[in-house]
Write a structure and sequence with these properties.
The structure is a homodimer. The first copy, chain A, contains nine helices and eleven strands. By secondary structure, chain A is of the alpha/beta class. In chain A, a hairpin with a 5-residue loop joins strand 5 and strand 6.
Chain lengths: 290, 290
């Protein structure tokens, strides 16, 4: 993979609106593995240096989404102990990337399994946006009389993708505008969302609108869980930047003097979150054992 | 106006998504005045009976919007003292309707004037949906460095109509999805919304999404005012029905087993409202002098 192609793959990750944070991280690991296989280097030390740079670049493209950064960091650390022979080193680096992707997939599944056990039979779940882990929760509960309330999640309405899956699984679903979340929170037994990043203070970064759902759930005493793999825990103290996407995604008129804002994420504070549900437990005690 | 035409005018009021509660009430009074002029009756007692029925029908078409009901009630009461001569009675009934419409317009303007004085210079106002009274607040403040944050207000995006007006008045405006309200509340100095109905317990019915804005404003300690004429105060104990409109307005796919909900209004509880601003005062002490 030459520099031009790598740059293009980075652009694809930046522009990707369909994949969640976990899928993007796994896509990043795939790209990393391809870099390991195709690197034009002759020595392991060169390979390590080259791949560390690639990992840094990959880890930085989606600042609001921690798993990409975290998994790239882990992969970069694993490069410290590569075999001396360069082609063996390529194989090890590739295998390490694939192994991390598998770990992430497994962790997401286990988080979903623990969450579905926590929810139990015959419940109405309200969510926001599209999370592959929350989708798995619905999948695990589909023969257990689960029902769904799904906000559209403007601007690109990922809620519609979720509704389509739930329809295929015959899960009774109510689809609403984001503005109706205040009306519908009281009709749910539990609120469950995915996450792009879990922060050290127990707060959570997820698609814009999650904060409003958490407020509405809190007002109605509906438990609010964040369900995801622990690779989403952000180790740094300061919260990462909240990515802003193209205003054109709103599909609105351009009025002079009116700036259209499209911040993709918001931060839900810990006091509105009943618990994180990760592969380590539901609820997960978190970094500081909250 | 024959029965068929009257039925059609009622349908137009039911289908009207552009006019706010106050404008709809004034449209109702116009229709009432036309009924008074064209009624095929020979005696004042017949006219009174006929118009009372028309007023009942007009007052019932938009249950979430109190001014229509309230102004029709007031008009119906005014019919008790009509002149004996039937054509004089027509004139009086017509004049009464026009007078009530003027009172309503004046009250809305005075509510806006008191609110703009309360807000003062150089402030950022966040609102929700489109209210002609809130529009008047912006109009009164346009040379006083006011700025606006305007959520789109799905499904029909009345926020866009507001943004267009603000653009014409050169008021710096940020236009956002409803899902970003949690992010943007903290950037406002004050939240101001209109209302469809003010309830006896101090709570307020307005376009769906208002409740979420109130929660977000409350969390950020941003004062939240409801600005409207006092004809919007609902006298009955029980809150009126929250109207539901066609799911087709969301413009979404029809997935089997997925019901699309389009409830147009929500109720913001009194504890999230800093005050009502009506023509009687800003804040208005309300029914019970809260």
């Amino acid at each position: 993979m030459d520099d031009e192609e790598f740059k293009q793959r980075l652009e694809e990750l930046i522009e990707d609106r369909h994949s969640g944070a976990s899928e993007l991280a796994r896509l990043g690991l795939e790209i990393a593995a391809q870099c390991a296989q195709s690197a034009e280097v002759k020595k392991t030390i060169e390979l390590r240096h080259y791949l560390a740079e690639r990992a840094e670049a990959l880890g930085a493209v989606r600042p609001s989404m921690s798993p990409l950064k975290n998994l790239m960091e882990e992969w970069k650390e694993s490069l410290e102990v590569l075999p001396d022979e360069v082609n063996e080193a390529r194989v090890t680096a590739t295998e390490n990337a694939m192994h991390l992707a598998e770990q992430s997939t497994k962790a997401s599944f286990e988080a979903a399994a623990l969450t579905s056990a926590l929810v139990g039979d015959n419940k109405t779940i309200i969510t926001h946006s599209f999370s592959s882990t929350v989708l798995e929760v619905f999948h695990l509960l589909k023969s257990r009389s689960v029902r769904a309330i799904v906000p559209e999640s403007r601007p690109l309405c990922e809620g519609g993708d979720l509704a389509e899956h739930l329809s295929q699984w015959d899960i009774p679903t109510t689809y609403i505008t984001d503005a109706q979340v205040g009306l519908f929170a009281a009709r749910a037994d539990v609120a469950i969302v995915g996450a792009d990043t879990l922060l050290a203070d127990g707060s959570t970064i997820n698609k814009a609108g999650t904060l409003l759902l958490a407020m509405a759930a809190h007002a109605e005493k509906v438990p609010f869980y964040v369900c995801c793999e622990s690779f989403k825990i952000c180790q740094q103290e300061e919260p990462p930047a909240l990515e802003e996407m193209s205003p054109a995604e709103l599909g609105t008129t351009q009025w002079p003097g009116v700036s259209v804002s499209n911040i993709y994420f918001d931060i839900t504070p810990a006091h509105l979150i009943t618990g994180w549900c990760t592969e380590r437990g539901a609820p997960d005690p978190g970094i500081g054992g909250k």
